[in-house]
Amino acid sequence: MPLFEYKCEKCGHAFEFLARSSEDAPRKCPQCGSSSIQRQFSTFSARVDNAGGSSCSDGSCSLGSCPTGTCPLS
Ligand SMILES: [Zn+2]
Prior knowledge:
The chain is mainly beta. The chain is 0% helix and 20% strand. A three-stranded antiparallel beta sheet has the order 2-1-3, with no helix packed on it.
């Protein structure tokens, strides 16, 4: 059974959840009871906070350089 990592968006509590099936998921934070929990992908957990940002979020560009066209990813 896969062990997934989840993080509460309300209190920031990170916890692991053992899924018995692919659709099994925790319904609320075990610490504060909030249902605002987000699945974490352990391999990329350190980068999740930057997901959804600009294409430069990987750090290959200095901040603000993209609009000028100096970013190789733009
Ligand atoms: Zn919580």
